[in-house]
Amino acid sequence: MKVLGIGNAIVDVICKVNDDFITQNNLIKGTMKLFFDQAKFKKIMSGLKIEKTISGGSVANSIVGLSQLGNQVGFIGKVSDDELGSKYEEGLKSENVNFFYSKKKEAIDTGTCLILVTPDSERTMCTFLGIAGKINEKDVDIEAIKKSEILFLEGYLWDEGEPRKAFEKAIVNSKKVAMSLSDQFCVDRHKTHFLDLVKNKLDITFANEQEIISLIDAKNFTEVIEFAKSLEKLLVITRGEKGAISIFGNTIFENKATPDLDIKDLTGAGDLFAAGYLHGYINNLNPEECLKKGTEMSSKVIQQIGARL
Questions:
Q1: Which of 98, 204, 285, 288 could crosslink 234 through cysteines, CB 3.0-4.6 Å?
Q2: What are the helix (H) ranges across the chain?
Q3: Residue 278 to residue 178: CA distance in whole angstroms
Q4: 39-85: pLDDT as tens digits
Q5: Complete domains list, the chain, with CATH
Q6: What pTM value is reported for the model?
Q7: Separation CA 122–CA 118 (nearest Å)
């Protein structure tokens, strides 16, 4: 395989809401909030009109994007043997993604992400990880990792205990490791560990501007560039309307954002950007072409509802 992803196996439930709904439920627009109480999570979901239900999860979205571009890919993610777990597995297989996990009946349900889309197309996420967040070393298929050119991880999945051990086992057995920092919430929660990963264990890091600024406590983007130069590892940063930039040592490439898009939903923009960039990377395109492919994929997905093309 070209790329093997390990991430949260989450079913996305997309709903349109107004700004008042965000405020009334004490949510911060544009961020992701984790719910550990399934009852509270279901309470927020109750009464909402569901626009779309689809197999999701950040890295899984990227892996599906890579498959759609013609690459041989796989995914490891933990689901329960329930209705949503079966839908999740079917969703990956229908996209020609090798699913390296055998589901069984678990005490906790398959993970769900409620994606709230406000009139400005911004997405605010409420996530109940369910069994997805309980991934452990036993769930990691070492042979699949060894047969893959790149291992792709997500910050959403990283946590103390079993998930961290699963990450470490996967990283040790991989040829090359890429990771998305996922969300500023994740960065702020795991800053010390993420910084160690970026500096010492990752070959490629994907982040948006806010995430990388938060990670290194930078005062401005110039400090981010100086940090990236000192890394001597590939750092790829999306900057919204400012486009995207890749930095490896003193080699810097930039690509402008696509203008005049009919933006409907920003869900999956970063996931599909990573898919496009990695497609270029594994097919030996130059860094500028990798950025263009990432921008092309993210531009497509934000002009529709949902995180997959």
A1: 204
A2: 19-24, 38-45, 58-68, 83-93, 142-146, 162-172, 184-189, 191-200, 209-216, 221-231, 269-282, 287-301
A3: 9
A4: 899 899 998 998 888 888 999 999 999 999 999 999 999 999 998 89
A5: 3-8+56-107+130-301 (3.40.1190.20)
A6: 0.89
A7: 6
